[in-house]
Hints:
alpha+beta, Peroxisomal Thiolase, Chain A, domain 1, 9-stranded mixed beta sheet, 9 helices
Amino acid sequence: MMKTAVQGIGLLASGLAGWDASRTVLAGFRPFRPGDTPDPEALILPPNERRRSSDCVRWAVQVAEEAIAQSGLDPRDVPTVFASSGGEMGVFDQLCRVLATPDRHVSPTLFHQSVHNTAAGYWGIATAGQQSSTALSCYDDSFAAGLLEAISIVCVEERPVLLVSYDLAVPAPLNNARPITEGFAVAFVVAPPLDDSPVIVQMRLEKANGRKSSSLPDPDLERLRLDNPAARSLPMLCAIAVGGSRTVGLDLLDCQQLILNVESCRPSAKAN
Length: 272
């Protein structure tokens, strides 16, 4: 059993524009209404990097910035884990289209954005951070793999870690092979627990033994959870928003699950 505290959360998705604005929705006090997602500002990025950055980078940086701001930590001091199923699928689509043209001229900017750890690199530039950074992918279980990595670092190194999980809608024709239709990005600052930590998560890895992962009662939120690998975090987010003691199961590879015992002492206030 590994134990950690959650010190900050960032969130961005259709109908979920920021953690503070979304807590009452995730707690069930207000209906979830999918709609247009505000373009992430990612103001922590220097102007030149912001202009060159991809949509994927700006989504990841936006939620990372929100989570770090809530934690009150200096981002330069916090190691990072970036988890994404597909990473820069939009850039990959652009590269394929350029390579299908007669001149095959790929711009240096497009090329440097094509690697899986692009978002991690831009975050490091924005924060002048020199701590360790991990970028990983585990298909539909990328969030669970990232959470396991981040909490493992917390427990071994006894220091806070920033986890960022994100995937955007996959453009055609690539969406025939990977049908992700909605963007979703989430970030957690996880840290060694203190006596007054408002959210405590105890995690263990078990064989699934046929047990299904946690689902959501709201059909639209459940549809989002199944659509986007990063949105597999929704049951954990809902457990934190509701408050009290909740158990969440997240699939990890074919036959395992992360079992999360979530203790949150700050339930969302009901909307007026």
